[in-house]
Amino acid sequence: MKTGARSPWVYLPVLILLAITVVPFFWMIVSSFKSLAELYSMPITWLPKVTTWANYKKVLFDSNIPRYFWNSTVVSLGSTIIALIFATPAAYGFSRFEFKGRGVWQTLILMSHLLPSAALIVPLYIFLGYLNLLNTLVGLILVYLVLTLPLSIWMLTGYFKSIPVELEEAAIIDGASRWGVLFRIMLPLSLPGIVVIFLYSFVATWNEFIFALSFANDSTVKTLPIGLAEFSTEYDTDWGAIMAASVIMSLPIAAIFLGLQKVFVGGMMSGAMKG
């Protein structure tokens, strides 16, 4: 009887993918503690010879990064929460009700997500200008709804369709309304899907550059991706500050993933056992 021992070569693709994922993040963190002279020195050093906090001091106290961090937080959370509020009833309607043109509307919603961002800049600029919302956080939130809402509806529709209709029918027989079914049955059972949509929407808006560059020219409403670009000028690039700001920018994403990981995995495990 074979022991089932695996060849070490089986793990090679995993190690390669792990290196591709981890090494850039490791290099970003290490470089944020290096001086500018050491960053440009050859040969390169994987660990700083002298650890310095000067880059973080410059980013946190001598730049507008804290302000941009706050703007990114407001815009990302605002657009994500609003997208979930609108996507939930829309996805429930698409998954449970038959109405004329349902397939056409679903296709149009998905196609709107496939449009390139550059094609939307001019019409969105005119729209925001008409509403007097250029260079405002509210305007950016509305713009990012265009970016995240279509796919949020499409993804949540799939999760709702995977829930047995019999659960809703039993609740309706017991006297629950449609809204009661949605909030008491559908949403709790769709929690893993909601977490995925939240992560997708938040990360998409947190890292977005083109729309922020086009609609937020005032320093009071700029977001973090634009702030990072300010450390690179025509004549010089402050890589130490860029790396330090990138580490700070990565912290909320890492915290959200770690905080919601148990909810996501726990929901998937619970669904598998019930199934």
UniProtKB/TrEMBL annotation:
Q: Which residues form the ABC transmembrane type-1 domain?
A: 69-260
Q: Where in the cell is it found?
A: Cell membrane
Which family is it part of? Belongs to the binding-protein-dependent transport system permease family. MalFG subfamily.
Which PROSITE patterns does the record associate with it?
ABC_TM1
What's a GO cellular component annotated to this UniProt protein?
plasma membrane
Keyword Membrane (UniProt)? yes
Which superkingdom, per the lineage?
A: Bacteria
**SUPFAM superfamilies listed in its UniProt record:** MetI-like
Listed GO biological process terms: transmembrane transport
Q: What is this protein called?
A: Maltose/maltodextrin transport system permease protein MalG
Question: Which key words are in the record?
Answer: Cell membrane, Membrane, Sugar transport, Transmembrane, Transmembrane helix, Transport
* Membrane disposition: Multi-pass membrane protein
The membrane spanning regions, by residue number, are: 9-30, 68-87, 108-131, 137-160, 181-203, 239-260
Query: Which InterPro entries does this one have?
Result: BP-dep_ABC_trans_perm (IPR050901), MetI-like (IPR000515), MetI-like_sf (IPR035906)
Its biological function? Part of the ABC transporter complex MalEFGK involved in maltose/maltodextrin import. Probably responsible for the translocation of the substrate across the membrane.
